[in-house]
Amino acid sequence: ILNVEQSPQSLHVQEGDSTNFTCSFPSSNFYALHWYRWETAKSPEALFVMTLNGDEKKKGRISATLNTKEGYSYLYIKGSQPEDSATYLCASPNAGNMLTFGGGTRLMVKP
Amino acid sequence: NAGVTQTPKFQVLKTGQSMTLQCAQDMNHEYMSWYRQDPGMGLRLIHYSVGAGITDQGEVPNGYNVSRSTTEDFPLRLLSAAPSQTSVYFCASTTGAKRAFFGQGTRLTVV
Fold it and tell me: Which of residues 47-86 of B touch A (CB under 8 A)?
């Protein structure tokens, strides 16, 4: 079981604010880092899968960076909208593809 | 393309009853897993399978059994339900280090 941690646990922002949260993971024996978006009453859906140090991925207003040497990834949301309200999960697989999830960051965007 | 199909969506059990949560995927993924989600604890791995005929324990396996007789199906059995097993359960499948696909979730209440 890998030690994957996320911070903060929850975050309240105003519509239009930009925000970011952190995922930390073991830097040794690294295979990949996943980000998922999880809306209430739905299933988690993948945002990004990153494998290389320095990777940057972007989807609309959401982007992510990866530092495998120091074991962290940031997720950024530019100009938050109420529909961005969700829990954002990161996860890392071990050699056997067993995904360990962080506890998630619950984002609430106020109109 | 159905993806991951998980049933039932809701279930209420009495303490001591047994039941099976069904999970099927049509993507020919080798890797399937079961998670439970409890408030403030993210997704915790119960059991996983890296291929037909192979299963292994995750972080919280006690009280649950799994089997993987085919690539497509990965049922989760609760042997004797306890109130501590009240949770939301998710089945997931993936291949390689790629993104995981999740079922719709099962909200289980044990009274």
Answer: 48, 50, 56, 58-59
Which chain A residue's Cα is nearest to B100? A46
The whole-number pLDDT of residue B1 equals 58
Number of continuous H segments (helices) and E segments (strands) in chain B: 0, 11
> How far is Cα B43 from Cα A56, in angstroms, rounded to an integer?
25
Nearest Cα to Cα of residue B107 among B5, B12, B35, B2:
B12
Contact A44 B102 (CB under 8 A): yes
For A99, nearest residue in chain B (alpha carbons): B45
Determine the pLDDT at residue A94: 83
Residue A34 touches partner B, C-beta closer than 8 Å: yes
- Cis-peptide, bond into residue B61, ω within 30° of zero: no
**End-to-end Cα distance, chain B:** 36
Given strand A19-24, what is the order of strands in its sheet? Answer: A5-7, A19-24, A72-77, A62-67, A56-59
Q: With a cut of 70, list the residues of chain B below it in pLDDT.
A: 1-2, 97
What is the predicted pLDDT for the residue at A110? 95
* Beta carbons within 10 angstroms of residue B12's beta carbon: 12
